[in-house]
Fold:
Amino acid sequence: MSKSSAFENDPKAQGILAAAAKVFSEKGYHHASMRDIAKEAGTSLAGMYYYFPSKEDMLFSIQTYCFRAVLDRLEQRIAESVDPHERLRAFIHNHLSFFITNVREMRVLSHESESLTGDYRAPILELKRAYYQSLEEILRAIAGTDWDEPTARRNVLSVFGMVNWIYTWYDPQRDGTAEALGDQMYALICNGIAAAHS
Structure:
């Protein structure tokens, strides 16, 4: 299993992960090589292997960092309110603000979600499940009714479908700040298109 958590605050390790995210996002995980990443990071293969023993270890580290960071930030934001509507707004703002500033990582999470294998896969699935459940709890509280599993699944994944693909179209000059965009998405989710544009 990954030893990279020991280097979480090491600038060299973080630089290698940033390079890996760039290469994975451009070439795809399966077409990227360790040599590609070392070249992008400006380091030797031996130096890179000191931090990350494999390409899969890098992918695992990128996904772990992203999910932990967004979950930790979310916990801090929703702790400020018990109102489910405010929690939903905080969830959307948190998601957009993180991934707008981590576009390459977002692309990797979206396109390489099934690329991890073996012992690397379970911890990421657990983090993803925690993130999914946090949104499900918020939406259930807003609805005020007891959804069955298929209804909950459709509603939660519809919201994720809205916020997860922002990296494919977001333009800060045309679409504004993460906060402004988050407010519009919040209105769309809660009230529909007419309310969002009234």
